[in-house]
Design a protein that fits this description.
- It comes from Halorubrum aidingense JCM 13560.
- This is SipW-cognate class signal peptide.
- This protein is flat.
- By secondary structure, the protein is mainly beta.
- The protein folds into two domains: 207 residues; 179 residues, no CATH class.
- The protein is built from five helices and 25 strands.
């Protein structure tokens, strides 16, 4: 074999040349990669941080009694930020001629927001003195709040002076707090009378020389006075007023959502509500719509009272399958009425002290209660939970279900109303039992 050649016809020189060419080609491929046009953009350490929304309410209260009475509140002026709630008045021995005001100004960190005011006022008679008894015939109702003239206005400071803007609401102190009880949307431009969703946000940015920037808008001032024309009817009466302010971000928000709207939790269950939910497993009063004998006379179909034996009753003729309205109303003074499709009964009852409930009972039938609504002392109250309950049975046993309103003694101390719709549909083999098909309203 010739050492300068191999079996495939390449001389050693040629092979070396060829390997050299391969090496050059490989090196050329490396140079070509590094010479391409290129660029690089990097995204690293990406973070999302939520903004802040913190409401601070600066407040200052004044009281004028010619120096006769001291405001015993721990702080009549300060800044409220979270719990516990602030207290700006603790007054005793107020008299006709006394007056005062409270100023509230808002600092928001750090998002433009819709601001809402909501309030609640309760009164107590605290017994009747001898001179009061000559002019006051309502031993259970205090008159102090109704006797105080009040107005809520937009306001601002000019040095030490308060400059009043447009009036938001005026009348008695009761009237003012009634307007706040369901929530009042404050306007960022200080314009009164706007409907929720029409108000402007608080969006004025303030950058003080010292401290952090914040967002603000108009202050509000509550002015009050007991006229000298008020007499002995307010002796020993007292009242308690509560105020809340809410800031809700204005971004992605039309301002119509009301953070002050009161709500009551509801839930459903099996069995009798009074046995499952009431502390004593007993009701203090009730209302009932039952199928009865479904006639214009004889066995009753509608009742309300402390118990079955003392209830006021009436007849009603059901149309199976028809949906009809009902309402239960307590007047806050010991009287209740129940109306089923225009048929009304009424009775005096013990004072309610807790929960309210609907119980549906069905035997060879279906009883459905729907579209429930609750009004507490004139304020529509949202239901946080179910607003309907039904019972249905096609067998030997009766189906009993309930819906409970998780109210407390304070909720039902004054007037309240429950409304809804009921549908009763009996089956062909319904036995005619007077109590087998019914719905109850139970009061703890």
């Amino acid at each position: 074999m010739n050492s300068d050649t191999n079996n495939i016809g390449l001389s050693r020189r040629k092979m070396l040349v060829g390997l050299g060419a391969v090496g050059v080609a490989s090196a050329g491929a490396g140079l070509g990669t590094t010479a391409y046009f290129s660029d690089e953009e990097s995204f690293q350490n990406n973070t999302i941080t939520a903004g802040e929304l913190d409401l601070f309410v600066d407040y200052e209260a004044s009281y004028d009694s010619d120096g006769a009475v001291e405001n015993m509140a721990e702080s009549a002026a300060g800044t409220q930020d979270g719990e516990p709630a602030g207290m700006f008045y603790d007054l005793e021995d107020v008299k006709p001629g006394d007056s005062g005001h409270v100023e509230f100004c808002f600092r928001i960190v750090d998002n433009p927001s819709y601001v809402w005011a909501c309030g609640d006022l309760t009164q107590a008679e605290n017994g009747i003195t001898e001179p009061e008894g000559l002019v006051d015939d309502t031993p259970d109702l205090g008159e102090l709040g109704d006797s105080i003239d009040a107005r809520l206005v937009y306001c601002e400071r000019d040095g030490e002076e308060i400059v009043e803007g447009d009036e938001i609401v005026s009348g008695s102190l009761v009237d003012v707090f009634a307007a706040l009880s369901g929530g009042a949307a404050l306007d960022g431009d200080g314009t009164p009378g706007l409907m929720p969703g029409d108000q402007g946000a608080y969006d004025t940015v303030v950058e003080p020389e010292e401290g952090d920037a914040f967002i603000t808008g108009p202050c509000v001032c509550l002015f009050w006075e007991i006229p000298t024309s008020v007499g002995n009817e307010i002796q020993s009466d007292s009242l308690t007023m509560d105020l809340e302010f809410h800031a809700v971000q204005s971004r992605h928000n039309d301002g119509s959502a009301n953070p002050c709207e009161p709500s009551v939790t509801t839930r459903t269950g099996e069995g009798f509500a009074k046995q499952q939910e009431f502390d004593t497993q007993q009701e203090t009063s009730f209302a009932r719509g039952r199928f009865g004998n479904n006639g214009p006379s004889g066995s009753w179909e509608v009742a309300v009272g402390p118990d079955v034996g003392s209830a006021d009753t009436a007849n009603y003729v059901w149309t199976p399958g028809d949906t009809v309205p009902f309402s239960y109303a307590y007047d806050g003074s010991g009287n209740a009425s129940f109306t089923l499709d225009g048929v009304t009964v009424g009775s005096s009852i013990p004072a309610p002290s807790g929960k309210l409930a609907i119980t549906t009972k069905a035997d060879e039938a279906t009883v459905s209660v729907a579209n429930l609504a609750l009004d507490l002392d004139g304020v529509p109250t949202a239901l946080s939970g179910p607003d309907a309950i039904s019972a249905s049975n096609d067998g030997p046993d009766r189906d009993v279900t309930y819906l409970v309103f998780d109210t407390d003694a304070a909720d039902v101390a004054n007037a309240f109303t429950i409304t809804g719709d009921v549908t009763v549909d009996v089956q062909g083999d319904y036995s005619g039992s007077e109590e087998g098909v019914a719905f109850d309203i139970s009061v703890e």
